[in-house]
Amino acid sequence: MKSYALFKKDISSELRTRYAINALAMFIIVTLSIILFSIGNERISSSLTGGLFWVIIFFTSMSGLSRVFVSEEERGTSLTLQLIAAPSTVFSGKLLFNLILVFAMNTVIAILYSALFNTFVLKNFALFLTSFILSNIGLAFASTIIAAIISKAGAKGTLYPVLSFPILLPLILTSVQLTLFAMDGTSFETAKFELAIVGCYDVIIFTVSYLLFDFIWKE
Amino acid sequence: MIEYSLTVESINKTFGRRLIFSGINFKLDSSTIFGISGPNGSGKSTLVKIIANIISPSSGKLVHNLNGTEIKPEKLHNHIGLVSPYLVLYDEFSAYENLNYFSEIRGISFDKEKVDKLLNKFLLYNRKDDLVKTYSSGMKQRLKFIFALMHSPQLIILDEPTSNLDDEGKEVVYELVKKEAEKNIVIIASNEKTDLSLCSETIDLKNYKK
Amino acid sequence: MKTTWKILLFLLLCFVSIAGISFPIVKNPQAWYEFPFIKGLEENAKIIFFHVPTAWLTVIAFLMTAIYSIKYLRKKNLDDDAKAYAAAQLGIIFCILATVTGAVWAKFAWGSFWSWDPRQTSIFALLLIYGAWFALRSSIESEEKRATLSSVYAIIAFVTVPFFIFIMPRIMTGLHPGSADDTNAGPIVDFKMNGNMQLIFFLSLIGFTILYFWMWRLGYKSIIYRDKLNKKLIRG
């Protein structure tokens, strides 16, 4: 499968050079440390705990998810990809890579976070897991298309969070809400509207990205 | 017998306010060597990119035909092979790995025999498992030829094909161009007289600056 | 726009502004120039004549930016990009006005300028979208690339807008009339305004909308003429 082959290429390139993995791992550790230091011995409320979780996820995403397109553009291999693959293949391949990256990254963050913050208690774990999966998918979808946009513009690094934040905002707000529900032990029944919102977001962003990618990719 | 044709109709290209060229028209059929010449900065590489479907013309259109039916833009890439100075291969992989991935991403099965033959012809067989990072510019250029030919394209576009090559390398390229031109279309964009002497027809881009 | 229309628009907006600010709010409106009390709003109600139109217009402007972005992507005609740009310029101005008038109203009605009520969050998000859109544009030199990439971003941003406008206020509790915990549907929907108030309100809405379209036309035409002149000067 062509997109899968592109994904394999990206993964083996990453495993060989380890640029992104190292940077992301350090970033997660540094961010968690900063937050721990700033909180000190204060006891933080559960809603703050839930919110901070997504702050860390957002900033880690901003540091790592643009690489899929920006590195190809910077090295000049975008041209190579254009010569060997149709735009839809490139889009699906890169999306797959970011999906795996988001899940890996956020699982690490979730594990470290629950180890370091004792207020992060998930009474309804199944709800957390469901919202985790849905939100990660949405995060991957949105950040991939924005990464494609900024890779073709100048001033790559700083523009990425500026463009991503408004697009991700509905997702983040709802995900924070769902995390708080999971921490409080709310039932699936009560949370189903929020889960539906994230699900819709995922579908809508994917559809729009898929339709618009061709315009971004070929000049 | 595969019949490929490329029709270029009234192509114009402007970048912002700067006119690169306008009014380019030609039609190419299989078994042709076509030349594009012009001083540096005249837009040879731009025209090459437009033909290879990398960038769009500002106006006009191109039609690629295979055995009478038009090829859709999304499917063009497997019919075209491009060698160019600004083509970059993945230097964290070896030559063999690069070519393997390219086949897979193209959705074509890796023709080991053909690739080995090409590697031999371009004297890269012994270095096929070395990282491209370790290659000299001449070796990279030769690897680009293998990249352009391994999927047996019907339209081969060579932009500055003999740059970075020694005389022996150039001979290999010329021999190859003549061989490919028996069945396919070869386009050469260059300023070198020896390169252009192979071409049956050449356009000079300085004539299209209207 | 012809002069008579301009004068009429000016008179309309003057009337609306004066009426909006000076007509008193009393318990039992008797005279034609008196407005009733609305539960939850009372004296503050007058800002509705200005705040709601600015919020309305910033959304209209965004809708137009998105529409002309779609048009540009289909036809690659830079005139459509100019129209989208002119709309966005007005959009961000009205967005700032809406945020500020909203914050002022919030101070008087709810005690603080900002409280992350869902509608406040939405207008802030819209401000961020406009800001990001302009930032993206200023980072790209090439005209066509700039138009293409900003069109794509405008469309993506546009599809997130329904989330803010319709869904968020329903699920989050908020201070705006019409939020999840307000049993009123809001003074506009419920028509708690009496006839006169409604009249002034709709006149204001119409007046501002006409003003917007007039400014938008001026805006995009001047961009198109300026670009044509630039091209002529360089080509010689």
Primary descriptors:
heterotrimer, A: 219 residues, 9 helices, 86% helix, B: 210 residues, alpha/beta, 4-stranded antiparallel sheet, 29% helix, globular
Question: What features would you describe in this structure?
Answer:
The complex is a heterotrimer of chains A (219), B (210) and C (236). Chain A is an all-alpha fold and 219 residues long. Chain A has one domain (2-217). Chain A contains nine helices and no strands. Chain A has helices spanning 2-17, 19-39, 46-64, 67-75, 78-84, 87-116, 125-152, 156-184, 188-217. In chain A, helix 4 (67-75) runs parallel beside helix 7 (125-152). Chain A starts with a helix and ends with a helix. By secondary structure, chain B is α/β, with parallel strands linked by helices. Chain B has a single domain, classed as P-loop containing nucleotide triphosphate hydrolases (Rossmann fold, 3-Layer(aba) Sandwich), CATH 3.40.50. In chain B, 29% of the residues lie in helices and 28% in strands. Chain B contains six helices and nine strands. In chain B, the strands form two sheets. In chain B, strands 6-7-8-3-9 form a five-stranded parallel sheet, with helices on both faces. Chain B is globular. Chain B starts with a strand and ends in a 6-residue tail after the last strand. Chain C is mainly α and 236 residues long. Chain C is built from six helices and no strands. Chain C has helices at 3-22, 48-75, 78-110, 118-138, 143-171, 195-235. The longest helix of chain C has 41 residues, at 195-235. Chains in contact: A-B, A-C, B-C. Chain A binds chain C through residues 145-146, 149-150, 152-155, 159, 162-163, 165-167, 169-170, 173-174, 177, 193-194, 197, 201, 204-205, 208-209, 212, 215-216, 219, and chain C through 73, 121, 125, 128-129, 131-132, 135-136, 139-141, 144-145, 148-149, 151-153, 155-157, 159-160, 163-164, 167-168, 171-172.
Summarize the structure.
Chain A is an all-alpha fold and 219 residues long. In chain A, 86% of the residues lie in helices and 0% in strands. The radius of gyration of chain A is 18 Å and the shape is globular.
Give the secondary structure arrangement, pairings included:
The complex is a heterotrimer of chains A (219), B (210) and C (236).
Chain A: H1 2-17, H2 19-39, H3 46-64, H4 67-75, H5 78-84, H6 87-116, H7 125-152, H8 156-184, H9 188-217
Chain B: E1 4-15, E2 18-29, E3 32-37, H1 44-51, E4 59-66, E5 69-70, E6 80-83, H2 95-106, H3 112-121, H4 137-149, E7 155-159, H5 167-180, E8 185-189, H6 193-196, E9 201-204
Parallel strand pairs in B: 3-8, 3-9, 6-7, 7-8
Antiparallel strand pairs in B: 1-2, 1-4, 4-5
Chain C: H1 3-22, H2 48-75, H3 78-110, H4 118-138, H5 143-171, H6 195-235
